[in-house]
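Our consortium's second objective concerns turning raw sequence data into structural hypotheses that experimental partners can test. To show how far this objective has progressed, the report includes one record in full. It was chosen at random from the queue rather than selected for favorable results. The single chain below, 413 residues long, was entered without modification.
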Amino acid sequence: MENTLFWLVFFTPGWTLIDGSEMEQDFMWHLSKVPRVVSESTFYLTSPWFEADAKMVPNRMCGIECQKEQPAPSLSELEDSLSYETVFENGTRTLTRVKVQGSVLEPTQNNTTKGAPIRRKRQVYGTDSRFSIMDKRFLTNFPFNTAVKLSTGCSGVLVSPTHVLTAAHCVHDGKDYVKGSKKLRVGLLKMRNKGSGKKRRGSKRNKREANGGDPREGAKESLEERVQGGRRKKEFGGGQRGAEGRPSFQWTRVKRTYIPKGWARGGSGDPALDYDYALLELKRAHKKKYMELGISPTIKKVPGGMIHFSGFDNDRADQLVYRFCRVSDESNDLLYQYCDAESGSTGSGVYLRLKEPDKKKWKRRIIAVYAGHQWVDVHGVQKDYNVAVRVTPLKYSQICLWIHGNDANCAHG
């Protein structure tokens, strides 16, 4: 590990320690009733060409730069954006129109954009604070084991035994599906041992992992805290010597791809960054522990304002790269931050670790999808951020519908 981290964040139950200062706060997941996104009708569409380039198309959005001046979208506009395309393994696709039932009021954020200096270096800002996870004890453990790689070059996160959440631009440029997405594959990280690679039978740890358990659940420090605590050389390979064996990927074909119409505009308009997310359904179920979805809280309800995500940055060949940082600003649909990241990490699942109601356990949930670098014009001043698309109540309901195939299990988020 060649980089040095200059500050430390501990998440211990009931307390948040940030740069030596303590605040007693109760950061919890709060289950609440969410609007229902219900399938209304499905139509067959012509087969796509699969000829687009896999790159971010940042054209249309309304975040911190214009949200206060723009009226909220109407119900019909929301339903149109939340309608979705499904592309199947054989190249055919459908359009499903949806209806929204229940309250559709999305939380309005108190935007607090400050006159921050313009950053001129894209994606990695100043000192590179990323961590390459090298040791198989961590690569194969939750939460790092939930990160996956797409054959189109992006990252993603496991959100069910058969589903991966990623960025829409990793498979679709807003008008057509990208090259290679017709035979899209997802790579799950595994370790190739120097020896036979067989696990010892009867091991308690192996049994826990096979059952989807977290062998370090309940420990005083989470895996992220151990990275942040400066134990990198001993436990993460230190960048000097690789861990036993070497990492490789177990590739699985994608059966279906779901993309919101807010992104897949085709010839009817530009894609909207607010809808830069997609769900991939795997052809075969995996046996790894996945991370559940959660509704993105406001910055004030995030411990220390910190977010976390792991992905496969292109400048660190096939290494799993973890990072964390404070959120700088927020809009209804986007998180603006300076988490160091390079191309290849887009599509990573941004997560938090909050306390479960009426329990002593802390739980991680995906609250956003990392979408990449973005220039923003705020009151005539150009600022650049790395941005993530938030999981709002409506988007939670939509993604939940994709995962379960119906809205029966999507009443609360």
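The partners drew two points from this record. The chain has one domain: 29-104+130-191+245-404. Residues 393-404 form the longest helix (12 residues). Both points have been shared with the crystallography group to help prioritize constructs.
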